[in-house]
Amino acid sequence: LKAESTQAGICLGLSKAPPSPGGFDPPCFTLGMRSLLIVANACVALVGAADQTVSFYSKPIQLRPTEVHNKVDEPIELPPEIAKVYANKSIAVTAFDVDVVERLPAGSHGVGRERSVPLHEAYNHHYIAFIGSKDGLWRLYNDSTGVDPIGGKCVKADKELLGMKTDKVHRAGLSQFGGGSGAEFRNNPHNMPSPYVFVLQSPTHFASVLHLINTKHEAAFAPGRTSSPLLECPCTPQRHFDLAKGTIDGCAPRPPFRCSDELIAQRNAGCELELYVGGYRCCEHGVFLTDTVKHDVERGPLSTFYLKFAVTFREHDPAQDRELHPTTCCDATMGRTAGHEGEGVLGANVEYDVPQCPKGTPPEGCIHVTTSVAPIDLTHDDDPDELVELVYAVGHMHVGGMYMDLIDDLTGQVVCRATPTYGTSTQAGDEEGYLVGIQPCVWGSPPLNPPMRFKRSHPMRTVAYYNSTTAHTGVMSLWLMQAAKLPAAPAPSNGAAPPLVKGADSNTVSAAPTGAPDSASYYRAAGFVSPISGSAAGAVRRTVRSPAVTISSGQRHPPTAYCQYVIRTDGDGHAHRADSGAARRTK
């Protein structure tokens, strides 16, 4: 067991990304797969003695081979341990866990059994779970009839985004969980550090969106790959594309295409109908992901699956608990203004394609890199200067994903690195060739590092890396994060410069990851090499760890040197170096 703690918090997971050229080694726990949940609970002591855990199941989901399930399921009543005991109270959820199972016939003693279903039988593309009041969940269910959970209604494509509009969910008396995690769900801990919790008011019912693909069919396998090609949602010959009208089977693409400028400039195939060959927009509820002329899957055998959801909870203590909410950031396809529309990551394209690297490229050079910048947690209703604490961050990627960085775009600090792990067997949770786990970064009370504080408008950069030795369609590079509100910071007095929030007053800039462009251009793109702007004069002391850079004196510092400067910003926004401290070497 190896534990490393830095400003990025503690990452709980299965493995580590390869070290970067400058020596940056992302913080993590390196665990055996079977030990993950035990260590996450025991070492960090996230589950207290007063907590209890209750499991429950969705309505049955029946699928034929290659068929897709992708809709809000009918609500079910929660077990009496929650629904009855806390009908007029609030509970604090400290952890949750999910599984996709088959429920087997009762044994000789009348006790039913269940089996975790491996990804090569049923692929979990992503899930969103809702817990709340009976009225709120039935309203959500009824309003979602005939509506794609992400893309909205047919033809209008009216941005009816169920999963990420936090304010709308709360007004309906609901709380959401998951928010887009997929195949990594069995090795993707959601243990919240004290005192941070999800608060549920008078919870009585549960509903879910499970985007599930039945992969029990010969069409689910392809030569040369161990994971099913169905997980990339290929558009079949039965789909009708009308380029003149801009529709698929008579409906505008759901969600509408809205990629970042970078992906548009590349003419990424996941960003325009003319080039689109596979992905979420061909993966709606009820479709088959194979040529139904060649394969008679529509009369194939039915399989029945359930989403199993377990919550660890206790009674809510308003004096102690800090309520969490999902942030609006981030998606690698997201533009700088996407968060302002209140749609979160669903204000972006959600997916994109990874083209195969040019023929003759060495395997180590086959890396596709995508980057975007967006405010960390801003909707049109929010005060952009309000502070929030970042408590939990975890990435979501698809097969081919190498790793993904979350970077403070003002300082260049690597806040978190998402490192996928891949399976090596046929067992559920360790399926060979599939992405089966992604480690989260967690901040909280000791022994964790304290949460970083940001203004809601603070720009965060996502940089996603995919292996491009083979092409991939419909990949995702999302950050699923939880934050807590803070009281507004006091206004500065006597013309003093406003205080820096935590996360900006100690700016640790890590070296570019393996496979990134050269260090200088990487951090220039990340906003590290840029003018300091502002209208008020002031002085700020910052500590920076950077790649080798040439400073004004012409002296060149190595990547491991720490250099301290006092920067004076004049009223016109120009920056001047007032003095410098001695550099010190560090490993």
- Uncertain runs are 1-49, 156-167, 338-344, 494-587
Q: Given the helix and strand composition, which structural class is it?
A: mainly beta
Query: What is the rounded Rg?
Result: 24 Å
Largest sheet: 15 strands, mixed
Beta-strand content? 25-35%
Residues in helix, %: under 10%
Distance between the termini: 21 Å
Mean pLDDT: 75
Number of strands: 36
Question: What would you call the shape?
Answer: globular
Number of helices: 6
Task: Give a verbal description of the structure.
- This protein is mostly beta strands.
- It contains 6 helices and 36 strands.
- The chain has a 15-stranded mixed β-sheet that branches.
- The radius of gyration is 24 Å and the shape is globular.
Short description:
By secondary structure, the chain is mostly beta strands.
